[in-house]
Amino acid sequence: MNRIGDYALIGDCHSVARMGKDGSIDRAYFPRFDSTSVIARVLDEERGGCFQVAPKYRVERHENAA
Description:
By secondary structure, this protein is mainly β. The chain has no helices and 5 strands.
């Protein structure tokens, strides 16, 4: 789980989400700022849920020593 300093707010002037450095959205309010939170992993890591944008596979690059 991220520390509070690892988050940024993203939004469109109507709704807002708290996004972590790892691409996870751990708290989101839709369709308005004063709506009930849709995702709340920040409050309960096991049952709160989250949405994460991340690659499915780890990709590594190696340079040829030619």
